[in-house]
Design brief:
This protein is mainly α and 246 residues long. Helices cover 68% and strands 2% of the residues.
């Protein structure tokens, strides 16, 4: 059993608690009433549908450019990778039941915006002029997405299987130098999509998600993990999202 040090527990900041209550109400409890589905089901429908949605956009707009095909491969395949991950080691945080209104808000208010990325590029609304030659930029985006997928999958798998065997603070493997490698991987993945589209809107959406959701989740998680006696030393030698260089 993990040792708990109640004398050094850091309470979660009030702003993070308020943001969590608001988002929980918006995407889990909105409208009240029955809770017919799990949050995971809403996420999985959007993730699995991305490949087909992007393919339909390409057919509708008759867009068979290299950029469109690469974007389909990146974003569409990532959605299928997520499904494989969810089947192999589902995240317990997504297993909660949510209301009908909450599910609609989650799909349209958060997840649906990710589909807008592909629409911007494939429809021709965004006609990107990349800072580097196209082939170099495409290689950068592909590399960023693949590396992000590897980091996210490895971190989630380590967390899932480690906690099944032993509860406590994870300080090795993917968590040895970075405290939130799963979020780092997700940010790299969606960052690669935004770079492919090269339009201002995806960057605004990502800033909203990363600050309003990811930063809140990481802050609350750290407040919870501070109950472990080894937390202070672990926090001192690791970085939030990137390894400490000094």
């Amino acid at each position: 059993m993990a040792t708990i040090n109640t004398t050094t527990v850091r309470p979660a900041p009030g702003w993070a608690q308020a943001m969590r209550r608001f988002t929980d109400w918006l995407v889990c409890d909105f409208g009240g009433g029955p809770r017919p589905w799990k949050f995971a089901w809403v996420i999985d429908v959007q993730k699995a549908g991305t490949f087909f949605f992007l393919g339909l956009l390409m057919a509708w707009y008759h867009n068979t450019t290299v950029a469109a095909w690469i974007y389909l491969a990146l974003h569409g395949s990532y959605g299928l990778v997520w499904i494989v991950k969810d089947l192999a080691f589902p995240d317990p945080n997504w297993q909660r039941r949510i209301t009908i209104g909450g599910g609609i808000n989650a799909f349209l208010g958060v997840l649906g915006w990710y589909w807008v990325f592909g629409w911007l590029l494939i429809s021709g609304v965004s006609q990107p002029h990349y800072p580097l030659p196209d082939h170099v930029w495409f290689a950068l985006c592909i590399s960023l997405c693949i590396l992000g997928c590897a980091i996210m999958i490895a971190a989630d798998a380590q967390k899932y299987f480690t906690l099944r065997l032993k509860r406590g603070l994870i300080t090795d493997g993917m968590f040895r130098y970075v405290r939130h490698p799963n979020y780092l991987g997700e940010m790299m993945i969606y960052g690669s999509f935004a770079l492919m589209v090269w339009h201002w809107l995806p960057f605004v959406v990502l800033a909203w998600v990363w600050l309003g959701l990811f930063a809140v989740n990481m802050t609350l998680k750290e407040a919870s993990l501070s109950r472990h006696p080894e937390w202070a030393a672990y926090r001192a030698r690791t970085g939030w999202l990137l390894p400490k260089l000094f």
